[in-house]
Design a protein that fits this description.
Layout lengths: L1 H16 L1 H6 L2 H20 L5 H20 L2 H9 L1 H6 L5 H30 L8 H24 L6 H15 L12 H8 L2 H14 L6 H24 L4
Helix pairs in contact: 1-7, 3-4, 3-7, 4-7, 4-8, 4-9, 4-11, 5-8, 7-8, 7-12, 8-11, 8-12, 11-12
């Protein structure tokens, strides 16, 4: 357990010391929130769908967590190049503990970024159910762990630092846009509904939205079970691939 804690703490310290990283990760979510949310808000209301900020805010929070979590995997490639990975792999600790510590560290950072964006959603006019924030945090934690583990798993198989962001963007953008984050699944075409059902982020966003606004597409229990099972699978797969890393 000490190895897990040390790896977690190292991730947190590196993040806290990089203020530019903290600020830079807010750019895209805030653009979506204010440009898309305030811009399409009147159209959304005229269509009789209610307040668009109320609908969009949970999706933007999840988007922040998704991007931050997935891109945390790039540190594996960078640390392999500078030799840090080699030093940790030869230590008398389980590689799975290293991976779990990294996953928890990346997930903690992603949740913190999501909470910062949550504050901005309040400024934009979002009015959540504050009593259900602990439930929303649970879904945020599961999303963060799931996609951090996926990012580390992908990084474990890559050696080219320039290729990682390209591949991650290729994966992230469809996951985000086809998750019901910016449009209601109730009114979506059947094809998009089908695709969304195979998208793990769909259930995470639906859980956050259900907790904060009460407007969820699926059942809360179903959202939780699916995202929790997928998270465990991702951590197990990430641990397996990380064990195969050659420094």
């Amino acid at each position: 357990m000490s190895a897990i804690y040390v790896m977690w703490l190292r991730q947190i310290k590196r993040y806290w010391r990089s203020k530019s990283r903290m600020i830079g990760a807010l750019g895209q979510p805030l653009l979506f929130l204010f440009a898309l949310g305030l811009g399409f808000g009147p159209i959304f209301e005229q269509a009789g769908a209610g307040n668009y900020i109320q609908f969009l805010a949970p999706g933007v929070i999840a988007m922040t967590i998704l991007f931050t979590a997935m891109f945390s995997g790039i540190e594996v490639i960078w640390e392999r190049q500078i030799g840090f990975i080699k030093e940790t792999l030869v230590a008398p600790i389980k590689r799975s503990h290293i991976m779990i510590g990294r996953t928890l560290g990346g997930a903690t950072i992603a949740i913190f970024q999501g909470l910062i964006v949550f504050v901005f959603t309040l400024i934009a006019g979002f009015r959540p159910n504050f009593s259900s924030i602990p439930l929303a945090l649970l879904f945020m934690f599961l999303i963060a762990c799931l996609f951090t583990a996926i990012g580390i798993a992908l990084a474990s198989k890559l050696e080219d630092m320039q290729a990682f962001p390209i591949i991650i963007n290729f994966i992230i953008m469809p996951i985000f846009f086809l998750s019901g984050s910016i449009f209601p699944l109730d009114s979506a075409p059947k094809f998009l509904k089908t695709v969304a059902q195979f998208n793990p982020l769909t259930y995470g966003i639906d859980g956050i939205r259900g907790a904060l606004t009460g407007a969820n597409h699926f059942s809360m229990l179903g959202d939780f079970l699916i995202i929790a099972i997928l998270t465990l699978i991702a951590i197990a797969l990430g641990s397996y691939l990380f064990k195969k890393v050659e420094a």
